[in-house]
Amino acid sequence: MDAITHKQSFWSKYLFSTDHKVIGMQYAIMGIIMAGVGGFLAYVFRYNLAFPGKSIPLFGHLDAMHYNAFVTCHGMIMVFWVGMPVLLSSLGNLLIPLMIGTDDMAFPTVNMMSFWIFFLSAVVLISSFFVPGGAFGGGWTMYPPFSAGGYVNHNPDFFKALFSGTSLMILAVALELVAMLMGGINFLVTTINKRAKGMTPFRIPIVVWFINIASVIFMFSVGPLVAGAFMLLFDNILGTGFYDPARGGDPMLWEHLFWFFGHPEVYVLLLPALGVLAEVLPVFARKPLFAYKPIIYLALVSAVLSVLVWAHHQFVAGIDPRMATFFSIGTILISIPFAGIFLSFMATLWGGSIKFSVPMLWVLGFVGLFLIGGLTGLFLGSNTFDIYAHDTYFVVTHFHYTLFPDIFFGFFAAVYFWFPKFTGKELNKGLGKLHFWLTFFAFNGTWFLLFFNGLAGQHRRINDYSDFSLVMKEPYITFEKVATISAIILILTQFIFLYNLFISLVKAKKGIRNPWDAATLEWVADSPPPHGNFQTYPEVFHGPYEYSVPGEKMDYIPQNVQGKNDNNNITHNNYEHETAASLVTDK
Amino acid sequence: METIAHNNNDNVIFPDPATDYHGHPHYTKVLLSLLALLSLSLVVGYMVSPWLAITIIFATAAWKTALVMRNFMHLKFEPLLVFIVIASVLLILFAFFFGVYPDVTAVPLDVTQPH
Amino acid sequence: MSTKQQHLSLPINKVPEGRLGIWILISGELVIFGGLIACYLQYRLRYPQWSEMAAHTSTLIGALNTVVLLCSSFTIVKAHEAAQRKDIAKILTWMTCTIAGGLIFLVDKSIEYTREIGEGFTFTSPHLQQTGDHIGSLFWSFYYIMTGLHGTHVLVGMIAMIIIMFQVRKGKNLHRVELAGMYWHMVDLIWIFLFPLLYIAK
User: What is the pTM of this model?
Assistant: First the structure.
């Protein structure tokens, strides 16, 4: 199907490929598999929450230790082994070279190594379930002294400690961070150096911008955590006292190290999905993206702010209350750039001729649900409210209303949108719509009522509420049952998606190059793009969202096609300032 | 139509050693300055008060860093954005340090001693 | 449409990919070490009694190591200069000197570690803990983790240079000499800060 210049064996074509598309799909597949694991863990403990003490179908009885381990690993897996690979690595690898009009990443071998290091990290994490003591159960935040072996021993047997659930989890996270760092370097260098001719920085599609900004945020904020993870690991296996107050250490240091990364991390997860929104909305509104440049500036502002607000996760941990004021103000301020981005998205829709395709449904669902999550975040950003709400289900519901639309709705929007490009085949529309609506309602059924549980004071990470009679009474017990049943429906619905994937993949290839009539560069390549992507490198003449341009015959102008108003006389001085004057003047 | 199926830098412009755009500072002079600064930081502890000595020691460390970065790593020939990246790293570390300071450093000593 | 990809004439774009990648890698590594140093500083400012512990590190060996690393930074940048002239023999000479410098550094460190471990200062320093000086033992935990992580980076840098030397011998990938050099300078930079923090600040 492609005239590649060298023959590739099975190993080098499918497994150890350096082709960014293969690597992107490998990340996506791993992410889906790990989502299955994380989802199963959630099913087990959710069942336990609704029907305490009962034997759980497909699992059995859940004791307290396993409950803690499952809650912890559900969180860890969903953030690091589903969210990151699926949104950052997979989308970045699949989209960036195609959207900037080049053949592959800047460092293809490093790219391949990053996937296999990621794969190794997943293996290490899963193996932590099967060692003596089981997986770590102290919350995905891994606070010492529990995570530093504090309750277990001070002079551990080295190998027993090395192969304990705690150490394995730290090692798994460390490997995963290394893989993501390698990927981030690749994305940045590729985007900076390998763009097509004519693609000035402000002609780059938003999703590419946002993935790069996310990579920068990630790389700069992960450093202290890597250092801290080493210290935690040594506390575990060597018995050092970095976080042990009895030995001069301080557990607060870990909290700061963790959340210094943990907060920017959620924006690292959010930005690629917002980028997907920015790509899908103009296509199905047939309107240019509103306020393209301000969106980029707003994202940069939020990136800077994101590293300054981390201690809002620690309001009740014993931090200096004066610092709490500072972090509280920062947290509330950071909602402003994101509100700006959302308003731009809505302005993009305004007056457009909207088509409710399956990707568009996911995007609109994302916007609606994320709004709820984001607004509840404002409440939690106030340190006074957080005194009441911290560690309750209000927080848990807040971050599920942000993370689930972010990771899942964003990913599904991307899959339904770009599937025809990367496979040359089409996903079934009816099944796609069914998948969307069931997911949408099941998700809300799972989570909405739990806001009220949180406000009533129900704390998180507790497996047995029998001693909490003041909180756990009607209607909150019923709310738990509604939540669990909806969660089961939510998980089962995803099988519709998997079935859709399967039957679509076994169909014959249609190879439609641009089924959505979209303007960005990836639709110029064949479906699926061959090794090397483009027959000839495209040249870019204008921005990526030229839809419904007045005076043009078609209702969109692809980026590599010269429109009537395009002027590609880019001199060194004014390449960024495409003002009306420079467009009109003949040079 | 020919398919361009490359990987690994076929179309990358390698810096041609003959025309690479940065020059070479006088490396030996830089090395001698570095060694001189090192000697200064070793003896200053015996010469002035402790606080002044510490300031001078870390100032010389910063100066040495700047010398190595600007000359050996050719930062002064790189585009401004590279310097901004490195400077942002420092800013981020400052933000981290001052955010954590009240909780870890500025804790009264008697709290930390084991009872 | 062009068949050969052309690069735009943007300032940041003039940086070749390998070098740009290494700068980004360096900034990432600086945040990691910087985070570790920031943690160390937090405790150092909290525990003035750490200066007694710092007195047990050998300033002589530390200063010697600093000189060695500074000179090896010099030699690797001379190798880079030779690479610009495509003078393979000189490249190999200068790179060998750099690797020798790294080796001397590691040997010095081992001698120093042996002496300190002999005196009972280890990662956990059990004898200090038995006497109730837990805070002092934390200094040594930091000392070993910081110098150990740094030493690992020295070793990795040396291995990378050896691999590149094999490629350079055949006349390939001369531009990688500069990249290895930049990584080595980063290692040197970190030591420039570790030295006063752990050795002199008393």
Answer: 0.91
